[in-house]
Amino acid sequence: MSELDKQTLMSDGVKPQTQDKQPGVESEMTPEPVYELESHVGSGKLKGKVALVTGGDSGIGRAVAIGYAKEGAHVAIAYLDEHDDAEKTKQRIEQEGVNCTLHAGDIADESFCFNVVEEVVEKHGKLNILVNNAARQEVKESVVDISAEQLKRTFDVNFFAMVYFTKAAIPHMEAGDTLIYTSSINAYVGNPSLIDYTSTKGAIVAFVRSVAQELASKGIRVNGVAPGPIWTPLIPATLPEDMQESFGVSSPLGRPGQPADHVEPYVLLASEGSAYMTGQFIHINGGMYTSS
Ligand SMILES: NC(=O)C1=CN([C@@H]2O[C@H](COP(=O)(O)OP(=O)(O)OC[C@H]3O[C@@H](n4cnc5c(N)ncnc54)[C@H](O)[C@@H]3O)[C@@H](O)[C@H]2O)C=CC1
Ligand SMILES: CC(=O)C(C)=O
Question: Which GO molecular function entries does the Swiss-Prot or TrEMBL record give (predicted)?
Fold first, then answer.
């Protein structure tokens, strides 16, 4: 049994629970997600680098932000308004002896995205790693129930914001720097109750493959991660309790994923260990989908 299985023992599934606002709050979850493992001992893979992680206050982004700090990177976090989660993450990052800055605001606003990048470069002097990870979702039974407002908001936050951050970051990046995007298993298998969300995740896959080709000649690598069912605030904040009943237990590995399952794959994509990878996606889904 892995350390993660021992710590979480969620092979019976999650206890369905609801939060009344999105983004959800990690400290209100029972059990709280596992975002850090003792088995991840930093070895300076990102020493002196500067990383910006959107959605880095909680869930997958928090795990990645702390993992990068353990590897020696200074970290900036963009998030909407979950200030308690963000402060807790900042405190943990600073325990690693690196700097952390918090940038609260709505990434649907293009000027906010450009300002965050400028603030990061001003404060830290450079930007080496951009993790485009923040997202939202709303369950609807049918495509005909998706309002124009929901469709626009989901694309604004999940896809257009990633494009804004990418455009803002590239002028500050050089050979060896990396861009990383969070997609979803849903982009590969479809999801009839998250059609707009799933479409944004498909757009991200196409975007990564295209930008990777553009930036290869500059030595800037562009990759992504496609998580499966992961126990994060997004779940109680957006999925009805009946959809949480079987969350992750039908995966071949028999449990929901945890944010901590993402740390070392995101470290790999940010570091020299993946020097010959670009335009690729790593699938973290307990074996629920096996392809590229
Ligand atoms: N939890 C899961 O089962 C899966 C999650 N993912 C993806 O993982 C990524 C991270 O999500 P989780 O860690 O699951 O949840 P989370 O709720 O911890 O993270 C979502 C983040 O997005 C940020 N955010 C949302 N709207 C924003 C806005 N308008 N402006 C600024 N920030 C905003 C929130 O502040 C939050 O930090 C997302 O891209 C999600 O689509 C993909 C597949 C499965
Ligand atoms: C699989 C997936 O993307 C969610 C959020 O459920």
Answer: diacetyl reductase ((S)-acetoin forming) (NAD+) activity
Which of 60, 84, 281 has the most ligand 1 atoms within 8 A of CB, as the residue to mutate?
Answer: 60
Give pLDDT tens digits for 59-88: 999 999 999 999 999 999 999 999 999 999
Q: Is 68 a catalytic residue?
A: no
Number of structural domains found in the chain: 1
Q: Measured from the CB, is residue 65 less than 6 Å from ligand 1?
A: no
The pLDDT assigned to 207 comes to 99
The CATH number assigned to the domain holding 112 equals 3.40.50.720
Instruction: Give a yes or no: residue 197 inside a domain.
Output: yes
Decide: 271 and 68 in contact? Cβ < 8 Å: no
Instruction: Pick from 87, 136, 232, 288 the residue to mutate for probing ligand 1's pocket: most ligand atoms within 8 Å of its CB.
Output: 232
ipTM of the complex: 0.98
Model confidence pLDDT, tens digit, residues 230-282: 999 999 999 999 999 888 888 999 999 999 999 999 999 999 999 999 999 99
291: in domain = no
d(CA 33, CA 26): 7
| Cα–Cα dist 99/257, whole Å | 29
For residue 132, tell me if it sits in a domain.
yes
Domain that holds residue 135: 46-284
